[in-house]
Design goal:
Radius of gyration: 14 Å
Number of domains: 1
Number of helices: 3
Organism: Kribbella orskensis
Number of strands: 2
Domain Transposase DDE: 2-70
Low-confidence stretches: none
InterPro entries: Tnp_DDE_dom
Protein name: DDE family transposase
Amino acid sequence: MTAADLIAWTQTTLLTGDLAKAEPKALRYRLLHVAARITRGQRKHFVRIAEHWPWRHDLAAAFAQLAALPQPLRT
């Protein structure tokens, strides 16, 4: 149930176009099985997406949308 909720939240909040309406199987193939590497440098984390991956721009836009969300308040 948690995975289904997370995919639904991702689609409504972060994705646009065809991926916002795609079935979970299509999302797994296009986004979750991406050829990428997480690297660190300059005190930051980077996601290096392979240039040949056809949905790299969609994934990069989703990460940018995620970074633009307001941070929760800490008390």
